[in-house]
Specification:
By secondary structure, this protein is mostly helical. It is built from 4 helices and no strands. Helix 1 runs antiparallel to helix 2, helix 2 runs antiparallel to helix 4 and helix 3 runs parallel beside helix 4.
Length: about 120
Amino acid sequence: ARLQDRRRIYREMSGVRNEFQRALTEPPPTGARAAAWWPLVVAVERIVDATTAARVRVNHGAEAPRAEEVATVIADLRALAEGVRKARTPTQLHPAALPPGDEGSVLAPVRHELAAARAIATDEH
């Protein structure tokens, strides 16, 4: 089931990427809007890749993350998704910062990618 979910997510991300690449060629305002969101699309792809890598590491013997850390990352992802649904531009998302986590955790790269997405959303890049 996880493999099927992962494949579905990658297919959906590929579709999003294709639509954005098409939209980037459109005249304003469509092309300009797509250009504003493009860095966040790339950031989300990196979050998906980091999440997949974390699962692979756990499957190969790395220590699974604590439930609290997983819950924090899930909450941040949901908040980011909710903001994307409501905002007209990435800088309107106003995401809250994640609390610091264990840098030795398999989820540390996921948290780093979430921080990068938050930086895009808050125009700190």
